[in-house]
DNA sequence: GCCGTTTTCGGCCCGACTGTTTTCAGTCG
């Protein structure tokens, strides 16, 4: 049993507890805190339990410690099983409806005997929900809308979709004379791989009156492409766009802007320890400011931006991407935060498909595009022979492709170097799709899985480990195979993959395609900690796909990578030397 | 359920908006 399974069980306890009628919100929070504590552990959970070292970890008291010990030693948690047995699954489903929380769910399910979403819809249409005490017509209407929304858009959105909407609205608001500062916040600013909604923070002059605020809010809710106005006030309004994504605007005075921007950037998990820290320094934080002292003698600690905000708390500036409660506050306190990699640090690209397999552009077109982007090397990695659907290259065609690359390298000399690579399939048994004597002739080899996704976790892990042990493999491509919002990755032991890659000197890519963003940023940091260099690879199938590097850089930053941790920030000579060293170590 | 250089009891991060209420509960982020 690993710590993630333990954390998941504790989170499930928290979710089920809040659906109990007499639930204490603080008990719920205790389990949520414990889940976070566990998932942030560096030590092996089984060893901690065996050695009795759970005690003393802040956030784990006697009860939760006992429950974790039961779970880890027996593989079961009787408390969780009792909660599951006592909680109708419909209550969990109803939690996904906007505007329905535990209290109302309990009222609905227990008093109206609702057992399915269809039951709830019928009860609304028959006005039985509105008749419940504390409910009314409008609440009932909101529930119906929530049901419809869940059916249509019960999912999250990929980063690029949300980014485009967010930037468009920011531009529109920035053009208004009432607006002083405006910024996209929320999970979008933190560059999460998917987002549920878009948060925008804007400021008006400190002396702006109610009429000015209303003008801004009218402008916001009156934008083209607004499908529905969810709520509208003078400090907060919420709309649903034609794409189905929800967008919130928070309006503050310009003096409040840095605090509000910080507040709405989140993550909530980052704020909780930060506020605790503030309290211990005799300060409090809310979205309108950082205050010293206690009510009613609060004194604003002036900050003109977030840098000063963190400084007032005795911390180095924490980049938005890092605000996930993953140890960033402790690192900021010690001044050990990394300088994060930026797009302009990239010197070349290593994972690009051409018309030789399933790409849309010729190598020459791709090379020109790389020159325009100021890159100095391009690794061409078409698919290998067994990938029929993607027009994988036979050994004969490889020979012809290499001749073309040689000609182009002569032509582009002094501007760009084209490297001979391959995205070689890892076959079912972990062997590679070209024989060793062919693999030996590439400048580098990306090995990826594109088939047999349903092997058992053990088989899938062994398959990957065998590929990593192959002395010709340079980079592991999209290591989990996930497609965001479509399918989970193949089940394998990613920690074992990282460990093996570190041992064999194999690089693991961040696949920058916004549907993949694989390796996940949570593991990027672990790979970095094991000394693995990470290439940021566009997996481009066209010139336009080269721009996906932008998303890969976001994930690299979330994974705490500095330029030195990224393979393709290296100048050509250094990259070639690294690839040759790999070859020589065989 | 956890925690303690004020506390072993009484706190626990904080505020906006909505709707059903006549002062506040529920939900959300």
TrEMBL record:
Helix-hairpin-helix DNA-binding motif class domain sequence ranges: 52-71, 92-111, 127-146
DNA-directed DNA polymerase X domain ranges (all copies): 2-324
Keywords: DNA damage, DNA repair, DNA replication, DNA synthesis, DNA-directed DNA polymerase, Exonuclease, Hydrolase, Methylation, Nuclease, Nucleotidyltransferase, Sodium, Transferase, Ubl conjugation
GO terms of molecular function: class I DNA-(apurinic or apyrimidinic site) endonuclease activity; DNA binding; DNA-directed DNA polymerase activity; exonuclease activity; phosphoric ester hydrolase activity; zinc ion binding
Location (main, coarse): cytoplasm
Record localization: Cytoplasm
GO CC, alphabetical: cytosol
E.C. number: 2.7.7.7, 4.2.99.18
UniProt GO BP: bacterial-type flagellum-dependent swarming motility; DNA repair
Domain of life assignment: Bacteria
Pfam annotation, one family: PHP
Record-annotated Polymerase/histidinol phosphatase N-terminal domain positions: 348-428
Swiss-Prot/TrEMBL cofactor(s): Mg(2+)
Catalytic activity line of the entry: DNA(n) + a 2'-deoxyribonucleoside 5'-triphosphate = DNA(n+1) + diphosphate; 2'-deoxyribonucleotide-(2'-deoxyribose 5'-phosphate)-2'-deoxyribonucleotide-DNA = a 3'-end 2'-deoxyribonucleotide-(2,3-dehydro-2,3-deoxyribose 5'-phosphate)-DNA + a 5'-end 5'-phospho-2'-deoxyribonucleoside-DNA + H(+); a 5'-end 2'-deoxyribose-2'-deoxyribonucleotide-DNA = (2E,4S)-4-hydroxypenten-2-al-5-phosphate + a 5'-end 5'-phospho-2'-deoxyribonucleoside-DNA + H(+)
Function: Repair polymerase that plays a key role in base-excision repair. During this process, the damaged base is excised by specific DNA glycosylases, the DNA backbone is nicked at the abasic site by an apurinic/apyrimidic (AP) endonuclease, and POLB removes 5'-deoxyribose-phosphate from the preincised AP site acting as a 5'-deoxyribose-phosphate lyase (5'-dRP lyase); through its DNA polymerase activity, it adds one nucleotide to the 3' end of the arising single-nucleotide gap.
Protein name per Swiss-Prot or TrEMBL: DNA polymerase beta
Taxonomic lineage: Bacteria, Bacillati, Chloroflexota, Ktedonobacteria, Thermogemmatisporales
């Amino acid at each position: 049993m690993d710590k993630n399974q333990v954390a998941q069980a504790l989170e499930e306890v928290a979710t089920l507890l809040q659906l109990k009628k007499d639930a204490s919100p603080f008990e719920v929070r205790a389990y949520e805190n414990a889940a976070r504590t566990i998932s942030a552990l560096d030590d092996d959970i089984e060893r901690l339990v065996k050695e009795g070292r759970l005690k003393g970890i802040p956030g784990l008291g006697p009860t939760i410690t006992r429950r974790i010990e039961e779970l880890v030693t027996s593989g079961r948690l009787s408390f969780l099983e009792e909660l599951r047995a006592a909680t109708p699954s419909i209550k969990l489903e109803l939690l996904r409806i906007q505007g329905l929380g535990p209290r109302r769910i309990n009222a609905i399910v227990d008093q109206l005997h609702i057992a399915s979403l269809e039951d709830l819809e019928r009860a609304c249409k028959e006005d039985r929900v509105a008749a419940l005490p504390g409910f009314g017509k409008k609440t009932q209407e909101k529930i119906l809308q929530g049901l419809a929304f869940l059916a249509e858009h019960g999912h999250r959105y990929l980063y690029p979709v949300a980014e485009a909407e967010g930037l468009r609205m920011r531009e529109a608001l920035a053009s208004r004379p009432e607006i002083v500062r405006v910024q996209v916040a929320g999970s979008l600013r933190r560059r999460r791989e998917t987002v549920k909604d878009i948060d925008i923070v804007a400021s008006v002059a400190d002396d702006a009156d109610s009429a000015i605020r209303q003008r801004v809010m009218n402008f916001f809710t009156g934008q083209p492409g607004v499908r529905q106005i969810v709520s509208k006030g003078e400090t907060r309004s919420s709309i649903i766009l034609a794409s189905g994504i929800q967008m919130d605007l928070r309006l503050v005075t310009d003096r409040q802007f840095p605090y509000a921007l910080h507040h709405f950037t989140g993550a909530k998990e980052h704020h909780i320890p930060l506020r605790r820290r503030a309290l211990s320094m005799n300060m409090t934080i809310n979205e309108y400011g950082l205050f010293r002292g206690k009510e009613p003698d609060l004194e604003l600690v002036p900050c003109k931006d977030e840098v000063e905000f963190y400084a007032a708390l005795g911390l180095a500036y924490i980049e938005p991407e890092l605000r996930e409660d993953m140890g960033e506050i402790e690192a900021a306190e010690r001044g050990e935060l990394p300088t994060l990699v930026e797009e302009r640090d990239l010197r070349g690209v290593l994972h690009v498909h051409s018309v030789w397999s399933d790409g849309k552009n010729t190598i020459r077109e791709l090379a020109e595009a790389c020159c325009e982007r100021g890159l100095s090397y391009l690794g061409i990695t078409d698919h290998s022979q067994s990938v029929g659907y993607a027009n994988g290259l036979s050994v004969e065609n490889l020979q012809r492709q290499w001749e073309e690359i040689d000609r182009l390298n002569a032509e582009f000399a002094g501007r760009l170097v084209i490297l001979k690579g391959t995205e070689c399939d890892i076959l079912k048994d972990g062997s590679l799709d070209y024989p060793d004597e062919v693999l030996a002739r590439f400048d580098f080899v990306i090995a990826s899985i594109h088939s047999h996704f349903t092997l058992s976790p053990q088989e899938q892990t062994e398959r990957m480990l065998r590929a990593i042990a192959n002395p010709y493999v340079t980079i592991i491509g999209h290591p989990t195979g996930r497609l965001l919002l479509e399918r989970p990755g193949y089940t394998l032991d990613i920690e074992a993959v990282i460990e093996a890659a570190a041992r064999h000197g194999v690089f693991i890519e961040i696949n920058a395609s916004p549907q993949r963003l694989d390796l996940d940023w949570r593991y990027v940091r672990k790979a970095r900690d094991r000394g693995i260099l990470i290439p940021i690879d566009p997996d481009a199938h066209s010139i336009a796909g080269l721009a996906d590097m932008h998303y890969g850089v976001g994930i690299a930053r979330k994974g705490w990578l500095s330029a030195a941790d990224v393979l393709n920030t290296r100048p050509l000579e250094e990259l070639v030397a690294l690839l040759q060293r790999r070859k020589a170590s065989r």
